[in-house]
């Protein structure tokens, strides 16, 4: 088995429950780390700086990006998002798996820089269910919901560029599917060439 941790890209429209899936995934596996993204959007109720996101001004965000300290960065619904690079390198070197919860723009950038990253696209059961979840959130205006649903249609078209599709019908089912993907990826021959060579030398 490979010693280096996996880099997992989780993308999907806003409201598909990616955050909840990640929390449950980590709760069941202590070797998984969540890459906290940086964003220029305002915190939602209950969000803490450094936990869900690093909340930055636009000026500070662009400074960090210019210094080459972001693995990827993108603009989504008028806000900037980015992935700090250093923690990812440190964790994967220690054999820990790292989950990135990022938009499709950012996911494409990561895949370009790290072709070994595993792309997983989280889909809602339907667009109607997605709208229901967005309304349940209670944090969006009517205009904001319409904007996110339009963005969702565009993002879902990008799902074909990901390695795997997971439908988040129930959190338990989505987590189980991602756990299966992680196990399968770690057993790929392309990730275990050193193991094969080591056995042949014995």
UniProtKB/TrEMBL annotation:
Alphabetical UniProt keywords: ATP-binding, Cytoplasm, Kinase, Nucleotide-binding, Transferase
Annotated catalysed reactions:
GMP + ATP = GDP + ADP
Q: Which SMART domains match?
A: GuKc
Q: Does the keyword Nucleotide-binding apply?
A: yes
Q: Which GO terms describe its cellular component?
A: cytosol
Location comes to:
Cytoplasm
Annotated GO molecular function terms are:
ATP binding; GMP kinase activity
CDD domains from the xrefs? GMPK (cd00071)
* Similarity comment: Belongs to the guanylate kinase family.
Q: What this chain does, per the record?
A: Essential for recycling GMP and indirectly, cGMP.
Q: What PANTHER family is this protein classified in?
A: GUANYLATE KINASE (PTHR23117:SF13), GUANYLATE KINASE-RELATED (PTHR23117)
Name the NCBIfam families on file: guanyl_kin (TIGR03263)
Q: What is the protein name given in its UniProt record?
A: Guanylate kinase
Task: Please name the gene that encodes this protein.
Answer: gmk
């Amino acid at each position: 088995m490979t010693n280096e941790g996996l880099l997992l890209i989780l993308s999907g429209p806003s409201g598909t429950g990616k955050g909840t899936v990640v929390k449950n995934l980590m709760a069941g596996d202590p070797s998984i780390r969540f890459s906290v993204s940086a964003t220029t959007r305002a915190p939602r109720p209950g969000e803490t700086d450094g936990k869900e996101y690093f909340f930055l001004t636009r000026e500070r965000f662009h400074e960090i990006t210019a210094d080459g300290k972001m693995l990827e960065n993108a603009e989504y619904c008028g806000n900037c998002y980015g992935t700090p690079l250093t923690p990812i390198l440190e964790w994967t070197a220690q054999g820990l798996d790292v989950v990135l919860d990022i938009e499709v723009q950012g996911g494409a950038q990561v895949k370009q820089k790290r072709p070994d990253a595993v792309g997983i696209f989280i889909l809602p059961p339907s667009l109607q269910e997605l709208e229901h979840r967005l309304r349940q959130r209670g944090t969006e205006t009517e205009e904001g919901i319409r904007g996110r649903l339009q963005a969702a249609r565009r993002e879902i078209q990008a799902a074909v560029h990901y390695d795997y599709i997971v439908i988040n019908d129930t959190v338990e089912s989505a987590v189980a599917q991602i756990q299966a993907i992680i196990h399968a990826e770690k057993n790929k021959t392309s990730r275990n060439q050193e193991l094969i060579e080591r056995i042949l030398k014995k």
